[in-house]
Amino acid sequence: REEGEEVARAEKAEIKADFGLSGALASETNTYKGVKIVYSQPPEARKPLKKWRLYPFKNGEPLDHINVSELSAYLIGRHRGIVDLPIDHPSASKQHAVLQYRQVPLVDSDGIAVPGRMVVKPYLIDLGSTNGTFINDMKMQPTRYYELLERDVIKFGFSSREYILLNEQSVQSPSRDNDE
Question: So what's the pLDDT on residue 33?
Fold first, then answer.
């Protein structure tokens, strides 16, 4: 009987309170309307100075442009309750991708960073979507930032809708024809 009591005391002594970080609080802070957001903005996130726009085309027909310069990031996906840019195609994931503006060092024509000069550029990151994200018909690797350039064509999943990225300094009418 005494051996059993000693073993029980030893087991109690080994169990100590763990007050370390569990991550539970952090996961709760990255929710919106009760839905866990799978993306967190990086420290270099900034609102753009240029007025960027997405020009959507469905089966070659232009639709109304979308202003994408008011926020530092735009969540793109099928979950209308939480995304900034909804995609209603069934091949799109609920949280598919993010258009993220990031402040990065200014690089000269030789590819060398200009000391002390920063610029805000648009980037796209696929959030591990089931059917992928495409820039100029090239499939992106998930969870990796890709710098977007003016006139890049973006597609989400198997949707026929294409989005062309332009800014206020671009030609007024985005056209795929080289006739203009």
Answer: 76
